Amino acid sequence: MDKKTIISRIEELKSKRKDRRFTQSMEISVNFKDINIESSDFKLNLSIPLPKGRGRDVNVGVFADGDMNLRAKKHSKFVLNREELEKYSRDKRKMRKFANSCYAFIAQPDLMAVVGKNWGIVLGPKGKMPQPVPPNADLSPIIDRIRNSIRIRSKKNPTIHALVGTENMSSDDLADNILAILSGIERHIPGDKIRSIYLKYTMSEPVRLM
Length: 210
Prior knowledge:
The protein is α/β, with parallel strands linked by helices. It has helices at 3-15, 66-72, 82-89, 92-100, 112-118, 120-123, 139-147, 171-186; strands spanning 25-32, 45-49, 60-63, 79-80, 104-107, 131-132, 149-153, 159-166, 194-201, 207-208. It has two domains: 3-54 and 148-208, Ribulose 1,5 Bisphosphate Carboxylase/Oxygenase (2-Layer Sandwich), CATH 3.30.190; 60-146, Rossmann fold (3-Layer(aba) Sandwich), CATH 3.40.50. The chain contains eight helices and ten strands. The strands form three sheets. A four-stranded antiparallel sheet has the order 8-1-9-10, covered by helices on one side. β3, α2 (66-72) and β4 (79-80) form a beta-alpha-beta unit. The radius of gyration is 19 Å and the shape is globular. The N and C termini lie close together (9 Å).
């Protein structure tokens, strides 16, 4: 699909947009045909970087001790050390609130066992188990990459929904993000297995892209 066509559909969606009291997200829906989305051949669990970003900030949680903990606090207000991890795990409500406050997590490798044992029941079903990161790693590019990426996970229905950006982003930037998403999907599911593609805002009727 060419960028010019995508931009024209975005402009069509924008022309039908109604003003809301909040900044709406734009979402893409991709519907597949003639596949079993639950089979190992087609099941999707992707992290796709958006070249023009998400259009809004998201929180990345960090589980780390020592120097990594101190450095992480320069990039996130959601940082827990080993002792805090264990303390939160004794209060399921507090643990769930913390988990819901973050889009994704990273963790010092030697804390992964603690996370798996105590937090796995909360983070696992949400697809938020942390990415292990070496304690001496530069956290800035890692956290920035996560903040500007989206996760696509297929479920039982042969349809996926993914964030494209926000309504205050330019049509050109949104089109670049859409192309990145479609390219990421088509590396796992051939384009001829796509039945249709739609774009919509948080509160709008969809516009057909394909």
